Amino acid sequence: xxxxxxxxxxxxxxxxxxxxLDPAAVDVRPAVREAVLAxxxxxxxxxxxxxxxxxxxxxxxxxxxxxxxxDSTHVMVSCNGRLDGDPDRAEWTAxxxxxxxxxxxxxxLTLREALEAVELLPKPLRVDxxxxxxxxxxxxxxxSDFA
Length: 147
What we know:
single chain; 147 residues; alpha+beta; seven-stranded mixed sheet; two-stranded antiparallel sheet; 18% helix; globular
């Protein structure tokens, strides 16, 4: 499912680029709208005809040498590059993206699973401070890779 990954577009790693849209202006199923808005996500045009639900987060991480680095991230959820899709089909992608680069994505999720994943996915930083760029087939695999 890598071809469906959000990171294949221009707007994921390196900061939430693109244009944030008015949630009332997008045409999506009521079940999708209610779930993503309740999770604090907002629609964003991320370029090349691709759309995602997005939320920005400010974080600080301590790396192994004790240094604190600012590593703001944003999370995104998309249904094959669209804002809408069947919430019960495993065609959603969830990811956490570093504003300075790097990403961790999981593809092949239902909307409920994708919304759970964005709450759990780690920052795309390894313990040594280097950036990770990876797409995983399951949340469990992504979590174990960063444990």
